[in-house]
Amino acid sequence: MRNRYLDLLRFLAIVRVVVYHVTGWASLTLLFPAMSVMFALAGSLMATSLHRSGPAAVGRRLRRLLPSLWVVAAIFVPAMLLTGLPLTPKVLLWLFPVADPPANYWGALALSPIWYLRDYLWFVLASPVALWLFRRYPLPTLVAPYCLLLAIELGVYPNAPNVLREFGLYFGAWLLGFAHQAGMLRRLANRVLVPTVLALAAAGGAWILSHPGPRGYDLNDNPLGNALWSAAFILVALGRAPSSADWVDRSALFGRTVTVLNRRALTVYLWHMAFVVALTPLVDVVGWSHQDLLGLAIRVVLVFLLVGVVTALFGWVEDVAAQRPPELIPGGRRPAVPAARQHAGSRRGAEPDRAADPREEAVPGPRGRAAEPREDAVAGQRGRGGDVTTR
Asked: Using an 8 Å Cβ cutoff, are 263 and 331 in contact?
C-alpha cells in the first residue's frame, strides 16, 4: 500500500508553494520549509531507485524530470525569441538545464522556478557517488554540505561558485532523504533526536533573527538559517513520521486531491509562476493589497484554477514520462487484475498489485524499506522581491 503520509507532505508543500508565491507571506517559509522537504523526499526516492537499479536509476530520474520541461520550453522559448531573447547556443540549456537557461525580461519572472530543476538535476547526477560515500561514512557525508555552507556564509570561502552554494544549501536535505530511506532517522532515539532538533532550530532561528533579509524573516533570503531550520523540520517530519495516514482517504474528495497534486506536482510547479505573474497586475487594477485577505484568496483560487486547466492539457506528459497509462485526472480506479494474472503472479512470489504495474518505483516505508509503488515529484521556489518570487 502507498505511504499516504509522504503523499500528504508533498501535497502540503505544493499548496504552500503556490500560496506563498501569491501572498508573499514570509511566515509560510518558517511554518513549512516546503522546498527543503521536497528535496528530502526526492533524495529518499533517489536512494531507493539506486538501491534497486544501480546507476541506471539516474537515467530513469531524468526521463521523468525532463519531458514536462520540454513542453514548457516548446511553448515559452519561441515566445521569448519573438520578444527579444537572442538566439544563441545557450538556448539549448532548455533541453538539459545544467545551468540557468536564458530568458528575456518577462520569461525570467514567469519561468523563474527553473532553478529547482537545475538543482534537482545536479543532485541526481551526484547521487551515485554521494550514496556510496553516505553508506560508508554516513555522518561526515551528511554534515559536509552544512559545513560548506557555513564556510561560505562566514566568509571563509568567499566568492564560491553558485553550484557549491546550492549544494551547501539544499544537498543536506537531499542526504537527509538518504538517511530516511535507510531507516536511520526513525531509529534515532529521542535522547538524540530531540536535542539535535532543538539545537538546529535554535541555531537557525538565532541566525535568522540576527540576519533579516529584504523581506524580513523569510528563509529564502537567509541560506544558513534556511538550511538549519529546514534540517530540524525534516528530522521531525521524517524521523517521527507515522506508520500510516489512512485518514487522508476517509474523504474521497480530499484523498483524490492529494493524489492528483502528487501525480501532477511537476506540472503545477513549472506553470504556476507564470499565472502568478500574469495576475499580478490585478493588484493595481482591482486595488488588492497584501492586507486585502479576500483579494489574496481570490488570486490564490484563480491561480489554482488556471493551473488546473493547463494540468488537464499537459499533465499527461508526466504519466508518459513515468511509463504509466495517460490519465486526464489521476487517481481513478485501476482496472482489476485478471484472476489468471494474479495466479501467475502468486506463483512467481509477486504481489498482484505489483505485477499489475511493475514500472512504478517503490517509495521507502517508514523504516526505510521499499513499501509501495509511487512516482516522483518536485516542487519548491525562492525569490528576491515583491510577491512575485521564485522559491
From this structure: yes
